[in-house]
Amino acid sequence: MSFARFAVRRLLEMAATLLGASFVIFGAMYLAPGDPASFLLSGRSASPAALAAINSQYHLDDPFAVRYFRWLGQVLQGDFGRSIEYRTDVSKLLADRLPSTLLLVVMALVLVVVAGLALGWIGAVRGGATDSTILVTTTIAVGTPSFVAAILLQGLFSVRLGWFPTSGTGQGLGDMIWHLTLPAIALALYLIGMLARVTRAAMLEQLGSEHVAVARSRGVPERQVIWRHVFRNALGTVLTTGGLIVSTLIICTVLVESAFSIGGIGQLLELATTTKDFPTVQAISLLIVGLFMTVNLIVDLLFPLVDPTVTLGARRSTA
């Protein structure tokens, strides 16, 4: 299948999936207990006329189908509605909070890729006590939830040692990076352990393969054997975890942002869910689904470049 045909097919699939996800996301909020009007009133009593005015303003009294298609039409125009909690456009809320979340995710992703691949490589190539130490370390990392890592790092490096801020995002790129260093480590720790173990297992499998033995018998330098015949062939297996890694980063961002009081998308989603701020929850949920699908599309497009034996459109093994 040609690249253009595959890309068009996947984009159509993404559009159909987003449409289905939009219906589920929109409907799920209205199945949850509670009434958004009660949050707007903050527990105060209101006359039937005042309650009717609120319902009319936010279209809460319209039939479900009418609300859904009105909302979908607005989303297609880039309008996610007006936040019930903040009384402002959801698009503005996302624009204000998205940069800090994206920077946090990017910093954590860099840590995961660099540390995960390096530890997996070292463990597979050196073996012995080094491999055992890396296995124990990555096992501890995998067994440490992000919110636990956030509390431990905050208590040690922020409260006791005072090396990093305890909360906030800072002002300016340099200050933001300094504020988000500990949150990025807490967010990346679990995934570093996971990626390291996946990389190690994939490289060990390649080290025991026939083509590696043939390359060594021909006198190919060990460094080239490891790079060209072991690591490059192991990348196919590693790449299949790319979607899972990014998905986990985005999901765990909610916990880490709350622990460090980072005013990002994750913290906004938590607050909006608590207050039944329908437009905000729906916009963030749809954004997350779109990011998931975009990452999976990128992985599918990169996979044939990493493994030439795989063609576009072929099913990948996720084992």
From TrEMBL:
Membrane topology per record: Multi-pass membrane protein
Main location: membrane
Segments forming domain ABC transmembrane type-1: 98-299
Source superkingdom: Bacteria
Subcellular location: Cell membrane
A GO MF label: dipeptide transmembrane transporter activity
InterPro entries noted in UniProt: BPD_transp_1_N, MetI-like, MetI-like_sf
Cellular component per GO, a single term: plasma membrane
One protein family per Pfam: BPD_transp_1_N
Record field: transmembrane: 12-32, 102-122, 134-157, 177-196, 238-263, 283-306
UniProt keyword terms in alphabetical order: Cell membrane, Membrane, Transmembrane, Transmembrane helix, Transport
Matches recorded under Gene3D superfamilies: MetI-like (1.10.3720.10)
UniProt similarity note: Belongs to the binding-protein-dependent transport system permease family.
Stated name of the protein: Peptide/nickel transport system permease protein
Organism the protein comes from: Kitasatospora kifunensis (Streptomyces kifunensis)
